[in-house]
Amino acid sequence: MEKQMVIQVEHLSKKFKNESALKDLNFSVHAGEIFGFLGPSGSGKTTTIKILTGQLAQTSGQATVLGKSVNQIDESIYEQVGIVTDNSGLYEKMTVYNNLKVFAKILNVKKERIDLLLERVGLLEHKDKIASNLSKGMSQRLVLARALLHKPKVLFLDEPTSGLDPSTAEAVHALLFELKESGTAIFLTTHNMDEATKLCDHVALLNDGLIVEHGPPKAICLRFNSNKRYRVLLKGEQELELPHSLETTEQIKEWMKNDQLLTIHSCEPTLENVFLEVTGRELV
Ligand SMILES: Nc1ncnc2c1ncn2[C@@H]1O[C@H](COP(=O)(O)OP(=O)(O)OP(=O)(O)O)[C@@H](O)[C@H]1O
What we know:
By secondary structure, the chain is an alpha/beta fold. It folds into 2 domains: about 5-220, Rossmann fold, CATH 3.40.50.300; about 225-265. The chain has 9 helices and 13 strands. The chain has helices at about 45-50, 95-105, 110-120, 135-150, 165-180, 195-200, 215-225, 245-255, 270-280; strands at about 5-15, 20-30, 35-40, 60-65, 70, 80-85, 155-160, 185-190, 200-205, 210-215, 230-235, 240-245, 260-265. The strands form 3 sheets. The chain has a 6-stranded mixed β-sheet, with helices on both faces. Strands 2-1-4-5 form a 4-stranded antiparallel β-sheet, covered by helices on one side. Strands 12-11-13 form a 3-stranded antiparallel β-sheet, covered by helices on one side. The chain binds adenosine-5'-triphosphate. Adenosine-5'-triphosphate binds near residues 21, 39, 43 and 46. It is found in: Cell membrane.
């Protein structure tokens, strides 16, 4: 069955005075899909999220979220949308728990879900802390929990794991996978190529407001794998990188026969390498 299209963007452009921040963007995101918007600082990621969430008007082109034009977004859409960006809007003087309680009431969500979500983002033991006393990573997780209270159909995440320690980032990834399984469409921005490769069904690489590559991360990397190479580790800690050739095939066969081969990996480029090749720029 064809999955429902949740976000559709057609020829979207944005100018700030004379500066073109977004140039003719085209992409779509379906239910149950994690879509990664990747680009270096200043490439236009936040501007795109702002347009898609009705906080900024585009200069030209069109975009719809849940079938509604972004120019007609009103408060009612927030019942189905979750947004996690820097401007968290937490109630600084309230406890962690009460921050969620206020939103649960507004969104008509049962209170039992609060503890469940706090546990999932690792904040249950901090539920009575005042929000202003939370660390950056904790505040980030509280904003994520808040965005998930009402099981949104679409979730916008600006750099969801920046500043989180690896185990908390891992917990956030698990939560995102679970949401995806339940049918939520997730639009995330990141600088982190490993995160994008692991999480995203599709990615768009953005450079200076222009999408320069688009597709499943693995497919993009394979497309740029013109110079096939293999990395092998042999007994005795000898590590070699070999070209794709008949000679290499014979050599590998020989090592296998003599039980010399410990590991073998293909050396296709990472998304980071692809970005560098396409734009001449690092993705930082
Ligand atoms: N309100 C604004 N007025 C003028 N220019 C703006 C405005 N907002 C963004 N820009 C410009 O648009 C471009 C894209 O900015 P944007 O914040 O979308 O980038 P980004 O990819 O999210 O960067 P980062 O990863 O650093 O958050 C930048 O050149 C920025 O200076």
